[in-house]
């Protein structure tokens, strides 16, 4: 038997409850994992509160991230006792996820936990941190070096944004953090490495086709009008790594930044990123993130506290990362 947070739906209303389940209830997979930690992402919050159509079937155990120890494996790549980490692949949406003490998953979805990381540290990073690292690597691959100028990070108070600020700072970039809660989180963002903090309201006016060139590059987690504004302000031959749509999935811009300034819009996906890319990103994260990030950017909760935290994260009331101890 194991404990799990289970979502059900009736008459289009989602309910959540903590249940004791038999291992036989777990879906099919190559590897059985004793889960140590999961985390709470915005997508998890939408699933648990029912505010978004995240889960494709019910009952469902949410949790798009997890880390734990291999209990059984029919795949030669993973052995009993090995530490692993899982992010993405529709887990917590179409396949039971990490908010349970046990999980059965496909071996293709797993990455060995880097030696430098503990399980709780891996979930303090999670999908958000992996996405942030992929964004940083995309900017590097596009030739955006620290010498070229300031890098803007939108949605900087969130999980992806806060890790991106930290990683970029550790790599020597001058980071400008955008947040709607500058008075509340400004000093915290500076402690993570931001050189300065800008209020979100400065980016809410509709963008002109081209504006003054300010940023060498950017990591955007917001989309919509914010991304359009950022694109109009990026330097000649600059780049924007886009990975989120917290502000909407539309993009009210023109081709002008692309054809007159050579700006590159780099789409970043972490859900189905191939194994080699994931492994490289996790290794770089383990090398770059300082201990101060784990101390300052995260908090730990129990499974019993998840529902309340899910409501908070969907209301924009969560700062940094939330880790769930199983």
Automatic annotation (TrEMBL):
Domain Enoyl reductase (ER) span(s) in chain numbering: 16-324
Domain of life: Bacteria
Alphabetized GO MF terms: acryloyl-CoA reductase (NADPH) activity
One Pfam family, short name: ADH_N
Gene3D superfamilies with a match to the protein in the record: Medium-chain alcohol dehydrogenases, catalytic domain (3.90.180.10), NAD(P)-binding Rossmann-like Domain (3.40.50.720)
Keywords: Oxidoreductase
Keyword check for rRNA-binding: no
EC category: oxidoreductase
InterPro entries xrefs: Acrylyl-CoA_reductase_AcuI, ADH-like_C, ADH-like_N, ER, GroES-like_sf, NAD(P)-bd_dom_sf, Zn-ADH-like_protein
EC number, UniProt record: 1.3.1.84
PANTHER family: ACRYLYL-COA REDUCTASE ACUI-RELATED, SHORT-CHAIN DEHYDROGENASE/REDUCTASE
Official protein name in the record: Putative acrylyl-CoA reductase AcuI
Lineage of producing organism: Bacteria, Pseudomonadati, Pseudomonadota, Gammaproteobacteria, Vibrionales
Record gene name: acuI
